[in-house]
Amino acid sequence: MTTSHAEPVHGGLPHEPEKATAEGRNKVLAFWLFLGGEAVLFGTLFATFLALRGQTNEGPTANELFHLPLVAAATFFLLISSLTSVFAIQAMHRNRPALLRNWLLVTVVLGLCFLGLEIYEFSEYVRHEQFGMTTSAFSSAFYTLVGFHGAHVAFGILWISLLIGQLAYKGLTVVTAPKIYVSAMYWHFIDVVWVFIFTVVYLLGKVG
């Protein structure tokens, strides 16, 4: 008998829940292709930033501007959120939807903490350092790269929040499980991108 798309999952989920249906497999494959395109796009932004980071137009340099304790705190929140998303997937594998929702909620809260610190960082640069989007080629490249990543974080927070609501309404099914899995892939991707941003933009900026 063919499993209904709305049928709850009983007796635990397979280790790769995207294999529950052909639709789930297609979603995961399509999302891998999407992430490949996103990686190329971020690679272009990184290359642009590296080419323009010395073009300060007599404005503040990266070494003068960046405050690593604040950025380190934001990094901590985002990396921990990646761990909590792993715990959410583990709860899904054990077919524990309540625990799954709780870990997803923690992931959202940590993502909001990261986003709040990033918004605060940008506001401090603009208000106290006169470092705006059009201050220099360096500032334009910085805000484009870091802001683009922040927009991805905001989208991920919204996506996971909607999935929490869907889990509360529909439960854990062969339809909702692949969505959770794909959202976790996305969240890990933006975490990995941030590690590169922290290294290339902030650490190298302070060293340089």
Automatic annotation (TrEMBL):
<feature type="transmembrane region" description="Helical">
    <location>
        <begin position="140"/>
        <end position="164"/>
    </location>
</feature>
<feature type="transmembrane region" description="Helical">
    <location>
        <begin position="29"/>
        <end position="50"/>
    </location>
</feature>
<protein>
    <submittedName>
        <fullName>Cytochrome (Ubi)quinol oxidase subunit III</fullName>
    </submittedName>
</protein>
<feature type="transmembrane region" description="Helical">
    <location>
        <begin position="185"/>
        <end position="205"/>
    </location>
</feature>
<dbReference type="InterPro" id="IPR024791">
    <property type="entry name" value="Cyt_c/ubiquinol_Oxase_su3"/>
</dbReference>
<dbReference type="GO" id="GO:0004129">
    <property type="term" value="F:cytochrome-c oxidase activity"/>
</dbReference>
<dbReference type="GO" id="GO:0019646">
    <property type="term" value="P:aerobic electron transport chain"/>
</dbReference>
<feature type="region of interest" description="Disordered">
    <location>
        <begin position="1"/>
        <end position="20"/>
    </location>
</feature>
<dbReference type="InterPro" id="IPR035973">
    <property type="entry name" value="Cyt_c_oxidase_su3-like_sf"/>
</dbReference>
<keyword id="KW-0472">Membrane</keyword>
<keyword id="KW-1133">Transmembrane helix</keyword>
<dbReference type="InterPro" id="IPR000298">
    <property type="entry name" value="Cyt_c_oxidase-like_su3"/>
</dbReference>
<feature type="transmembrane region" description="Helical">
    <location>
        <begin position="70"/>
        <end position="91"/>
    </location>
</feature>
<feature type="domain" description="Heme-copper oxidase subunit III family profile">
    <location>
        <begin position="29"/>
        <end position="206"/>
    </location>
</feature>
<dbReference type="GO" id="GO:0005886">
    <property type="term" value="C:plasma membrane"/>
</dbReference>
<keyword id="KW-1003">Cell membrane</keyword>
<dbReference type="InterPro" id="IPR013833">
    <property type="entry name" value="Cyt_c_oxidase_su3_a-hlx"/>
</dbReference>
<keyword id="KW-0812">Transmembrane</keyword>
<comment type="similarity">
    <text>Belongs to the cytochrome c oxidase subunit 3 family.</text>
</comment>
<feature type="transmembrane region" description="Helical">
    <location>
        <begin position="103"/>
        <end position="120"/>
    </location>
</feature>
<dbReference type="Pfam" id="PF00510">
    <property type="entry name" value="COX3"/>
</dbReference>
<dbReference type="InterPro" id="IPR033946">
    <property type="entry name" value="Ubiquinol_oxase_su3_dom"/>
</dbReference>
